[in-house]
UniProtKB/TrEMBL annotation:
Taxonomic placement: Bacteria, Pseudomonadati, Bdellovibrionota, Oligoflexia, Oligoflexales
UniProt similarity note: Belongs to the FdhD family.
GO terms for MF: sulfur carrier activity; sulfurtransferase activity
Keywords annotated in UniProt: Cytoplasm, Molybdenum cofactor biosynthesis
Active-site feature positions: 127
Subcellular location: Cytoplasm
Family matches, as Pfam families: FdhD-NarQ (PF02634)
Protein name in the entry: Sulfur carrier protein FdhD
Length: 282
């Protein structure tokens, strides 16, 4: 799979800001995370006889765009493995457009159902379900079957390691992170202004390496856990989700239904288990 890039990927920029502190104003420079639209188009093959069709426009932080696309297509059930993508090519933007674009050329054997193009419009960096017109349009996910067990002392250590990998957050304070561990090994970290984008980037990066890693993995999330993140984890078979913040009620219900262990509010000596506590051992 070849992914030519049209321009350098810039994750952060420097802006001027005015700080109010101690009764005074002070002009300073500050780093902020970049947010730009990415138009993802699908093409059934390399053939030029059929024009690519726009799947979705997502707001994301530039960088690891190919991972983002692979992970997104996997967690949405459009492809089954990274190898279903033959290639990606940069899409020339329309005049005056600020959107980047990627055309995804799928294996001709992959059937593209016309209705998937009606499931999406523009997905903001804060929403993994934006563009879907009903809850029923979310693809069903299989129950996660894994005999993975995790010792309690690993949880805070994994969290600390994941934080050290979030270099964009350290620079800007304005990004989410997703980190995957298998056994004691840190496999990959991805960051983005959107939680679901960081997750998709991570899934895409690991899927291109070895999708069998997912069944033995623990994913660390930098913020809260929403139901769409649980859904994405289930689509690739991740059995344990650990987050800094709280899960939503729907995320807990989905984790329980799909056999996923969910942990939140992780601190140095405490955490909450919301589902799948049988996987956590002293």
């Amino acid at each position: 799979m070849t992914i030519p890039l049209r321009r350098p990927q810039i994750e952060a920029i420097t802006v001027s800001r005015t700080l109010y502190q101690g009764g005074k104003f002070q002009v300073q420079e500050d780093a902020v995370a970049v947010e730009r639209p990415l138009n993802i188009k699908l093409a059934p093959s390399e053939s030029k006889s059929q024009a690519p069709a726009s799947l979705t426009m997502t707001m994301r932080t530039p960088g690891h765009d190919h991972d983002l696309v692979v992970g997104h297509l996997l967690t949405e059930g459009i492809i089954r493995q990274a190898g279903d993508i033959v290639s990606m090519s940069a899409d020339s933007p329309q005049r005056g457009s600020r959107a980047d674009g990627l055309v995804v050329h799928l294996d001709p054997k992959i059937a593209i159902e016309s209705q998937i193009f009606h499931r999406y419009s523009i997905a903001s960096s804060a929403c993994g379900m934006c563009g879907k017109t009903s809850f029923e349009q979310v693809q069903e996910a299989p129950r996660v079957a894994s005999d993975l067990r995790l010792k309690t002392d690993r949880i805070s250590k994994f969290m600390a390691q994941a934080r050290k990998q979030q270099t964009l957050f350290q620079q800007t304070g304005g990004s989410h992170g997703a980190t995957l561990f298998v056994d004691e090994d840190l496999i990959a970290t991805r960051e983005d202004v959107g939680r679901h984008n960081a997750m998709d980037k991570l899934v895409g990066a690991v899927a291109k390496r070895d999708k069998s890693l997912f069944s033995r993995s623990v994913i660390i999330l930098s913020g809260r856990t929403s139901f769409e993140l649980v859904h994405k984890a289930a689509k690739v078979g991740i059995p344990i989700i650990i987050s800094v913040g709280a899960p939503s009620s729907l995320a807990i219900c989905m984790a329980q239904d799909l056999g996923i262990t969910m942990i939140g509010f992780v601190k140095s000596s405490s955490f909450n288990i919301y589902s799948g506590e049988e996987r956590i051992i002293l």
